[in-house]
Amino acid sequence: MSTPVIATDALTKRFPAVTALDQLTVEVGPGVVGLVGANGAGKSTLIKILLGLAPATSGSGRVLGLDVATQGSAIRERVGYMPEHDCLPPDVSATEFVVHMARMSGLPASAARERTADVLRHVGLYEERYRPIGGYSTGMRQRVKLAQALVHDPQLVLLDEPTNGLDPAGRDEMLDLIRRVYREFGISVLVTTHLLGELERTCDHLVVIDGGRLLRSSATARFTEATQLLAVEVTEPDDGSSEPEVAVRERLVAAGLTVGTDGGHVLLVELAGEQTYDLIRDIVAELGLGLVRLEQRRHHVAELFAREAVDDH
Ligand SMILES: Nc1ncnc2c1ncn2[C@@H]1O[C@H](COP(=O)(O)OP(=O)(O)OP(=O)(O)O)[C@@H](O)[C@H]1O
Questions:
Q1: Which parts of the sequence belong to the ABC transporter domain (predicted)?
Q2: 99-109, pLDDT tens digit by residue?
């Protein structure tokens, strides 16, 4: 494997009331990497430590081979950062703001103007770039934040929740843009989200954390490959009672099967031999329900949490 872009070893961050990162050991190579976790999972804390902006309590980390504890400024020269929260001044234009950020990172005036024009074009801001940011839509503001992260031509960008507040179309556009940052410029990307499943199409590799701990780190394809999992969906019963899948689930678990859900009404049943199909059909029939769907399916990242919860019991 090529040199890891990011590598941490037992990285831990304790605040007085909470352990935000707990012995996190993870290594990711070049490409587009998704950092997935619920709110409070520790994503922003990890990003701040990787940028050398906050010290770890224990453990170590390297970004582009540089030590986060002692080489923070060298890291920030080579890494772009798009913060989660809006940090944009309303009275200046995108061009003025991004030129300013380019100058701050050390580019001479003429190079700063050229790079600014390039990155604003790349993120899809054209005539609007001369108008004050205060009048921009959320999508446009997110693009300005992305542009300032790219303007000093970094080797890696850390994007904290770049799709936050966007509608589905805006989200898709942002994800396409992120993909192109790597494909067209060769800039590696670490992108965070609390929306499970959102990054399946965008990322080569996914790191999933929960409560500061590593749940899983692997190629996206490994998350979504076909598994021994059956999706089961049943009809509403005649008596009109809701959530018939709850009764089905109880019966399946009682029969010794491992059952999760997709977060909605679909049950996900571990296949334990061919008899699993018959068992499901029998139980559904005994409960007086009909089968809408019974099929082997692919994993989605979203299931990871549902399945973990089941595995804990
Ligand atoms: N400066 C701080 N002081 C005390 N606790 C903190 C601080 N920063 C973060 N935390 C706590 O650490 C945990 C992880 O927070 P973090 O912001 O890293 O999570 P996150 O995954 O980025 O979530 P979000 O998307 O909501 O920001 C949370 O419980 C949070 O309350």
A1: 6-236
A2: 999 999 889 99
